[in-house]
Amino acid sequence: MTKKRCAWCEKTDLYKDYHDNEWGKPVYDDPTLFEFLILETFQAGLSWYTVLVKRDNFRKAFAGFDVQKVAKFTDAKLQVLAEDVGIIRNKLKIKAAVTNAQAFIKVQEEFGSFSKYIWGFVDGKPIDNNRKTLRDVPATTEISDALSKDLKKRGFKFVGSTVVYAHMQATGMVNDHVEDCWVRN
């Protein structure tokens, strides 16, 4: 019998695997939260599939998503990345990845971890939204608006409310699996 999934992931096996094994599962470790932050930054204005298909290339290009290393990328390294056909070569997003790494480290220093900071916006536990269909899933919420505003205040780039809400969904801060999806519970 075929598993019922959220309709957005039915296009490819890559999407199905990501949906079944990662999307919406709570993430509390800073390295994975940083990885998703970088990937969501590059996704802004594009499809998630575009990023997902290049994920391994991003991992290589961005030092295994090591926040300390990314924070120290030089202008020369940024130029190399701008010529890397394996990733999305948007110079503003590449620069934002470095800026965001630096801001991420500052948040870690202030709060003890980025996880403690970001999960504080949802009182440390996932919000279960109990969506019936994909049409019921919003692009933003009041919480993503507030988080976006705070991230921007802290110097993060490409963190509009839609990007932030996608990050919240990906890292399980919100459960937006539709009600008949087998992963939901």
TrEMBL record:
Enzyme class: hydrolase
Keywords: DNA damage, DNA repair, Hydrolase, Metal-binding, Zinc
GO molecular function, one term: metal ion binding
Source domain of life: Bacteria
A Pfam family it matches: Adenine_glyco
Residues involved in Zn(2+) binding: 6, 19, 177, 181
One Gene Ontology biological process: base-excision repair
Record-listed E.C. numbers: 3.2.2.20
Transmembrane residue ranges: none
Catalysed reactions listed for this entry: Hydrolysis of alkylated DNA, releasing 3-methyladenine
Biological role: Hydrolysis of the deoxyribose N-glycosidic bond to excise 3-methyladenine from the damaged DNA polymer formed by alkylation lesions.
Stated name of the protein: DNA-3-methyladenine glycosylase I
Species in which this protein is naturally found: Flavobacterium terrigena
